[in-house]
Specification:
This protein is α/β, with parallel strands linked by helices. The chain has eight helices and seven strands, in the order βαβαβαβαβαβαααβ. A seven-stranded parallel sheet has the order 3-2-1-4-5-6-7, sandwiched between helices. Helix 3 packs parallel to helix 4 and helix 4 runs parallel beside helix 5. The protein is globular.
């Protein structure tokens, strides 16, 4: 019960790593705001999580973020933890990659992480401090074909998180980054669907066959949620400005 009487705001919370984190957080005594661009999906996810609320939010829009944080404070009373998991992926050769797609990647990942964190600071300060976990990607650490925009956005999150950790230390707010390898989520599974008929097991086999990690498999969202929760919890009370890399050993190769 590491999160008894605590509140987590998780963006991208309707599915994937965000939803897995929300479920485990509440299982350990906390309450959660499931924030997502798709309200219907957020409501469906929150309906299966005791005490959770669903909030629609475009993290790249300042007014939308302010409203989402305000709704969390109004309905749940406080904010102790923030998990910035909202994101999307877009691929393309550099010479053909549209500037609109580039700008959207930066807006959602970088600006979104900045806006949500900045807006939640007063509530976290009132709660006596807390923790923020931002999600990056091993694409920020190793080169992968046709991911320049995505890698740039995730790399910016790593640098920004280190600075946030320094700036928010006086408020007793820790900031860390989780940098996962390949994870089978609704965002990534279409990347491997062409290898089969869209079945989840076939997607998993296609992803694992790439041999990207020492473990030669793709992760489940719960395997990334676990280190996220560790960094949010008091078990990580002396960890800030750091990166945790659950990648099955990909960056060791």
């Amino acid at each position: 019960m590491r999160f008894a009487n605590k509140v987590l705001l998780v963006t991208g919370g309707a599915s994937g790593i965000g939803a897995a984190t929300a479920r485990r957080y509440t299982a350990e005594g906390g309450r959660v705001t499931v924030v997502d661009l798709d309200l219907a999906k957020a409501e469906a996810t929150a309906a299966d999580i005791p005490g959770a609320i669903a909030v629609q939010c475009d993290v790249s829009d300042e007014a939308s973020v302010i409203a989402a944080v305000g709704q969390t404070r109004e309905q749940l009373g406080r904010i102790d933890h923030v998990f910035n998991a909202a994101g999307h992926v877009a691929f393309g050769r550099v010479e053909k990659f549209p500037v609109e797609a580039w700008n959207k990647l930066l807006a959602v990942h970088v600006t979104g992480t900045f806006l949500v964190t900045r807006t939640a600071i007063p509530a976290m300060r009132e709660a006596g401090g807390g923790a923020v976990v931002n999600i990056a990607s091993i694409s920020a650490l190793v080169a992968r074909a046709h991911t320049t925009g995505y890698a740039a956005a995730k790399g910016a999150i790593i640098g920004m998180s280190r600075q946030l950790a320094l700036d928010l230390a006086p408020d007793n707010i820790r900031v860390n980054v989780v940098i996962p390898g390949s994870v089978l989520t609704p965002m990534t599974s279409p990347l491997w669907a062409k290898e089969g008929d869209g079945d989840g097991d076939i997607n998993r086999a296609a992803a694992s066959s790439a041999g990207e990690s020492i473990q030669n498999r793709v992760a489940d969202p719960e395997e990334v949620a676990a280190p996220v929760l560790f960094l949010l919890s008091d078990d990580a009370s002396f960890i800030t400005g750091s990166q945790l890399v659950p990648d099955g050993g990909m960056t060791a190769i």
